[in-house]
Protein: Prephenate dehydrogenase
Amino acid sequence: MRTALVIGTGLIGTSAALALTQRGVTVHLTDRDPEQARTATALGAGTDEAPGGPVDLAIVAAPPALVADVLADAMERGAARGYIDVASVKGGPRRELEARGLDLSAYIGTHPMSGREKSGPLAATGDLFEGRPWVLTPTRDTDTEVLNLALELISHCRAVPVVMDADAHDRAVALVSHMPHLVSSMVAARLEHAEEAAVRLCGQGIRDVTRIAASDPRMWIDILSANPGPVADLLTDVAADLEETVRALRGLQSSDEGERRDGGTGIASVLRRGNAGQVRVPGKHGSAPRAYETVAVLIDDQPGQLARIFADAGMAGVNIEDVRIEHATGQQAGLVQLMVEPKAAAVLTAALKDRGWAIRQ
Structure:
């Protein structure tokens, strides 16, 4: 691949353009908002000048509802040898293209499983996709050359290719992305009019649950409008779980011993099922989840503190497997939770104590 055309210079399109440009590909940028394309150009993602002829690969980074129109336009004017889209829904756009009677041998649907709460070209980064799954949904008609171009793009972005059926992909992202986003938003909505005294008690748990609720509503309306059925099916199941949980909690309030016992059993069932589902979430590098020990360190909110901790851990010969930071409300301090292999926890604890760090149990 020597040339590419990115149509849509938001977070995903600009990030892909940055990755390609960094690897020597000439990238042409276009967007229905010319100012956004100029911003991506200023960031070094490519040029906003039109290509002189067909490029090797056209990357359509438009909202799902617009993908078919944008792809059809690019195909009809012969903009490229191969065409992909990076929308988060795959079945609908493909069926729209088929209904138009277009030759889809030069097209393959894709979806990089990566993103941020922020949107637009200014949020883009050339390493956004590194180590992340990038789904490919080829059909029997997909030309091998186009598949290879898509794989080359994924390689340049240092992502991991995953081949799936388009409709299976849509059901999967409804489960692991679309439905959780709505649930996160519903939880966050409870905070909108909550008393300030209650909100000040927020800890890391509520931050984790509501983090993705900060995303752009306009973008998510586009996404959910393209995949409403599978998301609604999942929320129906969640609603049933909620009804059972409410009944169980009401049972715990009952004066009847049997109803209290049933209520406790119901709550225990929900929590155990949650445990069983959580352990299936892939761990580091996509592997099966590992059990780590946590070493908690109190730090001041000052520049260089994290760098010092990681350097001290390195000097002790301990690899930090994961890290979380719990900020102290209203204070210039935080609790850094360092996840390490169980056998390394004692070594790290001793080393950090020797270097003056305040360890918390």
The chain has 13 helices and eleven strands. Residues 228-253 form the longest helix (26 residues).
